Amino acid sequence: MQIESEQRNYLVRIEHALKSASAIAKQYSRGTFQVRDHGGRDVITEVDRRISDILRAELLSSGEGWLSEEDHDDKVRLAHNVVWIVDPLDGTREFVDGIPEWCISIGLAVEGVAVAGGVCNPATNEMFLGSLDCGVTYNGASAHVSARESLDGAVVLASRQECKRGEWKHCEQSPFTVRPMGSVAYKLALVSAGRADATWTLSPKHEWDVAAGVALVTSAGGVVRSTNDADLRFNRDTTLLPGLAASGQNLWPEIAQFIARAETTR
Q: Is 210:106 a contact under the CB 8 Å cutoff?
């Protein structure tokens, strides 16, 4: 099929770019790079810049748009049907602090839909690749979202910073285990491969934070929706998206109800 062939070709490009970017990231260890820290979570390293440059050089072809956290947002992308949406280093604070919960994230949107994506965590040697027509692989092996049907006993990945701010305290008596973690792209990738049952955040995210993860979870047979229960669309003029939740199909109805209750108590 032509569409499947196109998506396979995209995945080849994504995998090659991730391997090149991972090789760059592995050249650095804590304390060996310059950091510009503007306070809070606003951290930029020279590594982000180098990875962004290599991703752009390896991914972008004529007629395609580009959206990267590290680059000026050229609105010319809005005129393109095919747009690369990347975060060269998602979880920069974790990278700087030496916590292995960061990743390189590449998403591809076609006519606003996240159709393919790849996430690589060089610190843990994990590679997640997937597209709507080709499914998902985790380190080369076929992967799927969790088939769990109840939140009872589930593992839910949560933002470490949200946990520190007390935003998950209402879950302390819940029947599931909350596991704090860094990068949102990495959390979504883990859910896509069935390494965790679900993840959600009520905080807004930028397109580059979640495009790859949304493509992966959807490609693995899961559900990803915004916390207002709307589909997620990409390559919009405004890159900020509402919070989102991701899980397997079986778990989604219970999660949607849980989040709806949580939203009313914020």
A: no
